[in-house]
Amino acid sequence: VKVKIPFGNKYLDAIFSVPEKKPTYGVILTHGAGGDMNFPHLVSLASYLASHGVLCLRFTCKGLNVAYRTKAFKAVVEYLQLCDDYKLSGVFLAGRSMGSRAAASVIRQLSQGDDDDDGFIQGLVCLSYPLHRPKLQSKLRDEDLLLITCPVLFVSGSADEMCEKQLLEGVVSKMKAPKKIHWIDKANHGMAVKGRTADDVMGEVNAQVFSWLRENVQL
Asked: What's the whole-model pTM score?
């Protein structure tokens, strides 16, 4: 189901992947710095979740400014909360690469503000979280992660040039939130693995995300 979500004086393009039975929980999903909501990994995850009973709302927000992307993500969360078509008990925020930074930023802002949304946000899914720029491991983008308290799942490639394995494990060990990392063996930032098809890798990612959701809420 295609929708337009109001954002300031503009609209964000978004698509609902709707399960057959009435869903209790949803996932809001967005893309990285390149691409849009039709990025194959997002489409694959959205259809997998919907086929397993989880509503998925994915949206496009162009713009390479994390603060702008965060504002857009917040607008989508508010839209889904007030959406009469789907009365959800809670939602997980998810993003790929830069989208996961925006998702983390939204959760930190909402948990620190007065508008804490009665536990509407259940957790955070970070696909290929860009912990640092390539070859710039001294500057970590971990400030939001360290302040989050809801459950967090990281799915990253063990050969991701923007998320060195030991560095992410170090950050995760300092996080207050319940957290889990699933490493995709030999995958790079784009989740490509030599000798494996994209569908095969996405099958692993999708199954990990769903089983983690199920550990955190009754699906």
From this structure: 0.95
